[in-house]
Design brief:
CATH superfamily of the domain at 40-224 and 260-272: NADP-dependent oxidoreductase domain
Distance between the termini: 19 Å
Pfam families: Aldo_ket_red
Shape: globular
Radius of gyration: 19 Å
Number of strands: 10
InterPro entries: AKR2_Oxidoreductase (IPR053135), NAD(P)_OxRdtase_dom_sf (IPR036812), NADP_OxRdtase_dom (IPR023210)
CATH topology of the domain at 40-224 and 260-272: TIM Barrel
Number of helices: 11
Organism: Chryseolinea serpens
Protein name: Aldo/keto reductase
Order of helices and strands: HEEEHEHEHEHEHEHEHHEHH
Helix content: 40-55%
Largest sheet: 8 strands, parallel
Structural class: alpha/beta
Strand content: 5-15%
CATH class of the domain at 40-224 and 260-272: Alpha Beta
């Protein structure tokens, strides 16, 4: 059954309230993974804000996003990832979190995306203001832009406690060589990269290195910008997916990612509370075994 049908099914059974906060089954707890460079655990399903949170100030645009954030926190999530590249997303996240009084409950990750030391400092300080934070949990160098310059700044800020963790990001396999070299030479807490049933190269090189260097991994583009849903349109998940508590295609795609031990957290973006719930449900129950992972890859490729 597809995502919408699954949610309607849960509602009919009384397991999901479409009017009062998207109830999850009470006997399940959201999966957590450790930050490898520290003694801290993160919920394994978070929220990306690219495109989805780049909205104006009117209630019609913001109310669904407020419900998304509320659902994330109520169901045990905390990771929210943004960037100055994402238009108004940082401001929208900051505003809505303050309205909901949940800012202190979130693990806020954002990025620096400019060239030059002073330009980087100015942009990051603006992110602090927009997100209404005195401390950013994770500051990342977006797409490796002027990474040497910003890494020097971030090391100092981490020592001062202005940022808690630092990392680098990219979203294409063409950047893996550069990322690998940085990971080998520089102390990092996180990398953020693309990984999905259709993009597997990260598990060949970067994941083993991340585990060796104790670098945690955030995963972006888990749905391949919708390409995975398009591929399975009109189809239902295989019956054997029930063996790892999978009830929708969204969960199928996310559980594959989470079943790799190097993945700390996956950050799909959404503007719909019901999809936020579905995404979080991928972090509940069993995950695919190695054999099942192989079957998932074969299935999606046929």
């Amino acid at each position: 059954m597809d995502r919408r049908t699954w949610l309607q099914h849960l509602s009919a059974l009384g397991l999901l309230s479409l009017s009062s906060g998207w109830k999850l089954m009470d006997d399940e707890t959201l999966l957590k993974r450790p930050i490898l460079s520290a003694s801290e655990w993160l919920p394994a399903v978070g929220l990306g804000t690219w495109q989805t949170f780049d909205v104006g100030s009117n209630a019609a645009e913001r109310d669904p996003l407020k419900a998304v954030l509320k659902t994330l926190v109520e169901k045990g999530g905390s990771v929210v990832d943004s960037s100055p590249m994402y238009g108004e997303s940082e401001k929208v996240v900051g505003d809505l979190c303050e309205e909901l009084s949940i800012n202190s409950k979130l693990f806020i990750a954002t990025k620096v995306w400019t060239t030059g030391e002073q330009e980087g400092i100015a942009q990051m300080n603006r992110s602090f203001a927009l997100l209404q934070r005195k401390t950013i949990d994770l500051m990342q160098i977006h797409n490796l832009v002027d990474w040497q310059t910003h890494l020097r700044t971030l090391r100092g800020w981490k020592e001062q406690g202005k940022v808690r963790y630092i990392g680098i990001t990219h979203y294409t396999e063409s950047a893996y060589n550069a990322m690998e070299q940085i990971m080998l030479r520089e102390p990092l807490d996180f990398i953020q990269i693309n990984y999905s049933l259709l993009s597997l190269k990260a598990q060949e090189r970067l994941f083993p290195l991340a585990q060796e260097k104790k670098i945690s991994v955030l995963v972006n583009q888990p749905f391949e910008e919708g390409a995975l849903f398009h591929r399975v349109k009109g189809k239902v998940p295989p019956e054997w997916a029930e063996e790892f508590n999978c009830h929708s295609w969204g969960q199928f795609f996310l559980k594959f990612i989470l079943s790799h031990p190097a993945v700390t957290c996956v950050i799909p973006g959404t503007s719909k509370p019901q999809h936020m719930l579905d995404n979080l449900s991928a972090g509940l129950g069993r995950l695919p075994s190695e054999k099942q992972r192989e079957e998932m890859v074969k299935f999606i490729n046929t």
